[in-house]
Specification:
By secondary structure, the chain is an all-alpha fold. The chain has helices at 2-8, 27-32, 40-95, 101-128, 151-171, 178-201, 226-244, 271-293, 301-335, 342-357, 365-388, 397-415, 418-425, 433-438, 447-476, 484-489, 491-495, 509-526, 556-564, and strands spanning 539-542, 547-550. The protein has 19 helices and two strands.
């Protein structure tokens, strides 16, 4: 029998190599050596069976390799998203005054630390713990990662929760107590944010597009988190600054308490750090958006991920240019002098990024250009509106994340492409409103747009219902805002051992001691009412740096009224 096979195939057996095998396998030799295969047909059938088995093994190997590659990229994307914490930190560092730098940096670090514990303990369970009896509002299983095997998915989602929590850090800079901020980080990462995730992103969420029977037949589509992450963080920032109030001197005269005709522009100490933070955030956003494509159950995830990178780049670039040029035109018309504003341009870029996040994988590149343009305009208008409403946002997080995220949700309902929806979600039941109008194959359909509006209302309503009472309670018990003297003195001076370095705000230790003695003498010399100026009142004040401190609580009211009305003017030697 072997002779017949050899004659049939040119006098030699054929050797075939399996992909991934360690050695060559002689299929014909193996089959022809079997005694039960005594005909050419049986031998060829044997060879065909082996080849079929080999092909299946090869396909399984390819599938496993693809799964490993996908998981590795998700881990890389998670690292990029976590690296955005450094971007937020640098942005905040540059936007605050030097006397509050350490305090602001510690709060950014607490976001990463607090979120890790809260999301591990309960946050992930509330977000994705469906269990045997799932509901559309909150998860009920997988607390402390019990029965969780996909750690890749967990670390990616943790990075998202930390990003949402840290949005508020810059808004409350220079006046929020450290303890209050720690409480806030825990409750947002452990409860408020996870509920939004469950409702919109889990397989059983009441508004989720992944649900078997999605809301309005479409669900709320938020591809990478314009609403879930950015709107949630931005809305909480709005509530927090509303309750906390503005920084001292921002909208009111510190001496008279009267409203300033023109709000004081409190500038940050380092524009370079702000730009560095912006570029780090832009870089991290590539993992933020494209990583979400790899979590979809679609064979087109590579194409979708590539589209995410393109649309993200276009929206950010167009938004930045839009803000720069429109503000230039406005300033030239109002002040008669052109002004190229770097701070507004940086925030415009971030607004464009927040705006494209919701639809980065399901809109066409031309739509990303429009989304970026509108995001830039909305940022400019909402930033000015905050000043009119006298809401103090040190880094403009509210216009960037709340307004930008809201526009991102709406843009999905307007620009979602039938082709992109098919590749990302496997259907095109309801497409973007503009596509339904201009496509000859679609009827006018506003279902997806309506669903997105419902999603926006849910996020805003949930944040107000949970966080407004939380911040109000903190404020009522005096746990939210720093004392007036600590704020004027600088939170670094009050709580972090003083300023680091030889900056212009730094006070020499001997100057502080000398100043304390002089203030004590001044207060005692001018004390006319014992109830107003208690015995033994002690304090420090620096007109040059705005640093004020007291040594006992009874002195606070008296020292505040005297110092803030300018009754004591003490020159302080600086470093």
């Amino acid at each position: 029998m072997p002779n017949a096979i050899e004659d049939r195939f040119g006098g030699s057996t054929t050797s075939t190599t399996m992909a991934g095998a360690a050695s060559n396998v002689d299929f014909f030799g193996n089959c022809s050596s079997r005694e039960d295969l005594n005909t050419t047909i049986l031998v060829l059938e044997c060879v065909a069976d082996i080849l079929q088995t080999t092909r299946q093994e090869q396909m399984e190997l390819v599938a496993r390799s693809a799964e490993v590659s996908r998981n590795l990229y998700v881990l890389y994307a998670a690292a990029l998203v976590f690296f955005m914490q450094a971007g937020f930190a640098m942005l905040c560092a540059g936007a605050v005054r030097k006397k509050n730098l350490q305090n602001t940096m510690l709060k950014n670090l607490l976001d990463a630390c607090g979120s890790s514990v809260a999301f591990y303990a309960v946050g992930y369970a509330f977000a994705f713990g469906d269990g045997s009896n799932p509901n559309g509002f909150i998860g009920t299983t997988n607390f402390f990662l019990m029965d969780v095997e996909d750690y890749t998915f967990w670390i990616y989602q943790y990075a998202f929760s930390a990003a949402s929590a840290t949005i508020v850090a810059g808004t409350l800079a220079e006046r929020c107590k450290m303890g209050a901020y720690a409480y806030y980080t825990t409750i947002v990462s452990g409860f408020v944010y996870p509920v939004v995730v469950h409702v919109i992103w889990s397989n059983y969420g009441v508004l989720s597009p992944f649900k078997e029977n999605p809301f309005l037949g479409a669900g709320v589509i938020d591809f990478a988190g314009s609403g879930v992450v950015h709107m949630t963080g931005g809305c909480i920032a709005l509530i927090a600054t509303w309750v906390l109030g503005p920084r001292r001197g921002r909208f009111h005269d510190e001496k008279t308490g009267e409203v300033l005709a023109k709000p004081k522009d409190i500038k940050g100490h380092n524009m370079g750090l702000q730009l560095l933070g912006t570029m780090i955030l832009w870089f991290g956003w590539y993992g933020f958006n494209s990583g979400s494509a790899l979590l979809l159950d679609t064979p087109h995830y590579q194409e979708v991920a590539g589209l995410c990178l393109v649309t993200t780049t276009l929206a950010a670039g167009v938004a930045g240019i839009t803000v720069l040029l429109f503000n230039l035109i406005i300033m030239e018309r109002i002040e008669g002098k052109a002004k190229y504003d770097l701070t507004l341009t940086m925030n415009g870029v971030l607004a464009g990024l927040a705006g494209i996040t919701g639809g980065c994988g399901i809109v066409e590149p031309w739509a990303a250009v429009i989304i970026g343009f509108v995001a830039g305009i909305l940022y400019l208008c909402s930033s000015k509106l905050l000043i009119v409403l006298r809401l103090d946002d040190a880094v403009d997080a509210i216009p960037v994340h709340l307004v930008g995220g809201m526009w991102g949700m709406l843009s999905v309902g307007l620009f979602a492409s039938p082709l992109r929806l098919e590749k990302a979600y496997g259907h095109q039941n309801h497409v973007g409103f503009f596509h339904s109008i201009f496509s000859p194959f679609q009827t006018i359909d506003g279902t997806l747009l309506a669903s997105q509006i419902v999603g926006i209302c849910f996020i805003i309503g949930w944040c107000f219902v949970t966080m407004l009472p939380f911040f109000a309670i903190l404020d009522y018990f005096g746990l939210f805002r720093s004392d007036v003297m600590d704020e004027l003195r600088g939170l670094d001076n009050s709580f972090h051992g003083g300023l680091r370095g030889n900056g212009e705000d730094a006070l020499a230790p001997e100057a502080m001691e000398n100043l304390e003695r002089r203030i004590l003498k001044t207060v005692q010399r001018n004390r006319t009412d014992a109830s107003r100026a208690p015995s033994g009142a002690r304090g420090t004040y620096s007109k040059a740096s705005g640093s004020v401190g007291i040594d006992d609580d009874d002195s606070l009211e008296y020292m505040s009224s005297e110092l803030l009305t300018g009754h004591h003017d003490v020159e302080v030697p600086m470093k």
